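Thread: quick sanity check before group meeting

JM: Hey all, I'm pulling together slides for Thursday and realized we never actually wrote out the predicted structure for the chain we discussed last week. Dropping the sequence here so it's in one place. If anyone has concerns about the input, flag it before I start.
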Amino acid sequence: MGIFSQALSLITGGDADLWRIVGLSLRVSLSATLIASLFAIPLGAALAVWNFPLKSVLVSISTAMMALPPVVVGLAVYLLLSRSGPLGDLGLLFTPEAMVIAQTILIFPIVLALTREAILPLDREYNRLFSAFDLSPALRIKTLVWDARFAVITALLAGFGRALAEVGAIIIVGGNINGVTRMMTTTIALETSKGNLELALALGLILIVIAFLINALVHLIGSFNRKFQRTR
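JM (edit): ok, ran it. Output follows.
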């Protein structure tokens, strides 16, 4: 039986180890995306709407953070959570929670920047209307986020895809411990180095399927958004 056939057998046969790894990867990445979105979406909208001192500096910093090297983020989180670090007493190092923290930091600037880019043109379009109704800043942001909801959802999908594909940061803070912090990407790297190509290929196929699904959702949401814009 070829490697590809064995990989498919692992997937269709319900291999417990494989699906435990997939489940942990999805839980960690979804948690990181949710946490990042709770802060990045309102902050991205605020950067698009409000004018205040040092706004351009914050925009530049948030844009630059999109290119943060994952291993640097992993190292920073490791130093924070290690025994000698300021958060060492929490005992989070080498746990799924540590990986959630690292992924949240990585995808936060992505969701923030894409949200800001989605809301900027809407703010310019609605500016006179908002001024006429004298809307509060909070209600103005809420309205813009709702109207840009399709683009914001696309930003969340981009962040989720980035989190799911991450290797460097999570292997540093998670330790790639079997049954505890082993994710799809870190397992692929480990099992390939060990020569266990069947499991690595099976996880790779699942990652590809998830990537295609995310891409399909992005296109579908984009199509809904274009139809919505034409019917307004």
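AS: nice. The domain at 3-231 is CATH 1.10.3720.10 (MetI-like fold). The mean pLDDT is 88.
JM: adding both to the slides.
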